[in-house]
Request: fold
Amino acid sequence: MTQNNTGIPALKLNYRRTFLIGFAFFGILLLWQVYDSWCPTFLTDIFARQMYNLSSAELKIADADKILNVQWIVGIVMACDNLAALILLPIFGNLSDRTRTPIGKRMPFILCGTLVAAVAFPFIPLFFHYNNVVGMVIMMGIVLLFMMMYRNPAVSLMPDITPKPLRAKANGIINIMGYFGGAFATVLGIFLKLSDYINVSDEARKLWIIEIPFLAASVLMVISAFVLFFTIRENRIAEEMKEELELGEQLAAIENPVSDDAPMTRANRRMLLAILGAEFLWFMADNAIGTYIGNYVIYYLNSASSSTMLLTILGGLASVAGFAIAGLIADRIGRKWTISAGLLFTLAGMAVMCFVRPTGTVTGANGEHAFPVLLYAVWVIRGFGMALVHNCSFPMVVELCSNKKIGKFTGFYYAASMSAQTVTPILLGLVFKATLAWSALPVYSAIMLALSAAVFIVLVKNIKAKRVSNTYGLEALEGE
Reply:
């Protein structure tokens, strides 16, 4: 910690170390991008084939109602994963808060969770290929269990060693690293098109089309975990950062100071509940899109699955731009209004998506239709808007606790998001069953975003961090 010419303490964000911590998030988003892009379609295909005794090729030309009628079952399976996460994330957060080992309190969970999840992950498409739905769902459960062991401690690592006023900028950096992981999985999906596997006869299916993305994700997850392990020495860095972390506590953007020796104040508890309530609603909206967009593209727009991957790339680029500037925006207008702007921006994108319809123009060899260009613009808007939201929301939650309870409060943050992701696939699946209309997807998402924005704007206070001189440029890169 240094001082500027006026004697004001200068907190220094170590960009190099923050990028290295970002390898944890790289592995998380890499796995989830593959999981969310492939698994809902796996489940749709295998359940519909078994329920109606049809091949995938026959399902493609069958009544669309058959596909919509199984979405609630798909939603239940995806929700069961999230229900387990709702329970496990706070548990692993609390455990890692209390863990003390020579390699740190988070690293044992990160290494164990990564290695087991990486081994189990490639078995999901293998069981699907051989029509073993029980084996596939079990593998999905194992991956989820050990990724939950990994996820909370990995995300907690950044605030562990970053002073509170710098966490929004640091969160932007690790999210950008995460999107690099998601982008890699997306590129694989462009060249290994899931629709080329789904839209052919059972005999013509090639296992390698769906197996390679899962194998690649597993290998890169392990590499990212070992990069993290060999470059981030938790215990040493925490000791070196002790004085800066204490100063960060004094400069936090909270209504009342936090203390391990006193109960949470009413004002801080009210702020926490309002943030978590709004977060629950925006994840209801965002996860609805993430869960069903693959099926929406294949079964409603009748377009190639590679179009979904192009959407993800555009959304990811817009998200990177959002993460890059969200911290600067928050410094000027506060985290509340940065998040509020992101929610309203995303809501505008979903309102536009309500008017998207299949083009009807056949372009693909398998009878696929041209992809609606308007949806690309929607994904850019959505990516940028949700980046503003995600960049500032997690720092707002861990701002309300001391450094000894970061894992616990990270658990609160993920409990809200995972409870939403437990409810929304089932609820939207039932909406599909009732309406028999894929157009219900953007309407549902828009309603949830509107409710989230209302809760956040009305109930969350805008408290800006106390003035502090931050160091930038080459000075910020110096040393550990």
About this structure: The beta strands are 2-3, 9-12, 469-471.
